Amino acid sequence: MARSACTLEVRGLRVLVTAGGSGIGRAIAERLLSAGAQVHVTDLVGANVESVVKANSGLVGSQGDASLVEDVDRVVADVVSQFKGLDLLVNNVGIAGPTGELDRLDEADIERTIDVNLKSHFHFLKRCLPLLKASERNPSVLAISSVAGRLGYGHRTPYAATKWAIVGLVKSLAIELGPQGIRANAILPGAVTGPRIDKVIADRAEALGVPLDQMRQSFLSKISLRRMVEAEDVANLALFLASDQARNISGQAISVDGNVEYL
């Protein structure tokens, strides 16, 4: 039987978005909420949680450090108390990490990048997968990787390593969870406009000893469309992948980057 016209159906979907208080995470949370989903965000910065909750009626949130097991336990308990289950986990949390030659990077900065960008995904998955397995609403995992998860990225090795790992994690999860009806996909954003990419560009300019304007132009010259993307571009793809229209899309790593040619 032919399916009806495309409708991104997520009404009532129970969603947890990590690092959902600002940037890409907030854009995803607000996009899903506007489409009728029930959304809980968590964020390291309490003020970010307060801001997004205050600005969006019906959205709820918890402050917490995604790299700390005790905080993850508390956040997931909050979600269960509020929603009585979960249909979509958006593992979005991540930091830029240090910039520089690998042998000169601080060990603590490397470890923090791995803890936040990768271990946090495992922390949430271990606790949320039982909830997803009990869901009857097209359950899925959506992980936010990066264009640095498909291209080498000199002077950003800890960050790139974690983002490549997320892609491998998602592809492996898709195989493991597919027989139980759970999908897993990754979104790979490119340079997203905002304070974070501004700092990345500034740090890289300093590390390589080049003018800031030259470094910014260098970033743009590597993008086929010669422009950065918006957080809303990522949120729109997240909405599609969460919907019933994407019910047979799993194990994919999809870029939203204007076609970054190299890093």
UniProtKB/TrEMBL annotation:
SUPFAM superfamilies linked: NAD(P)-binding Rossmann-fold domains (SSF51735)
Record Pfam families: adh_short_C2
PROSITE patterns: ADH_SHORT (PS00061)
Similarity annotation: Belongs to the short-chain dehydrogenases/reductases (SDR) family.
Organism: Mesorhizobium qingshengii
Record bears the keyword Oxidoreductase: yes
Keywords, alphabetical: Oxidoreductase
InterPro entries according to UniProt: NAD(P)-bd_dom_sf, Sc_DH/Rdtase_CS, SDR_fam
Protein name: SDR family oxidoreductase
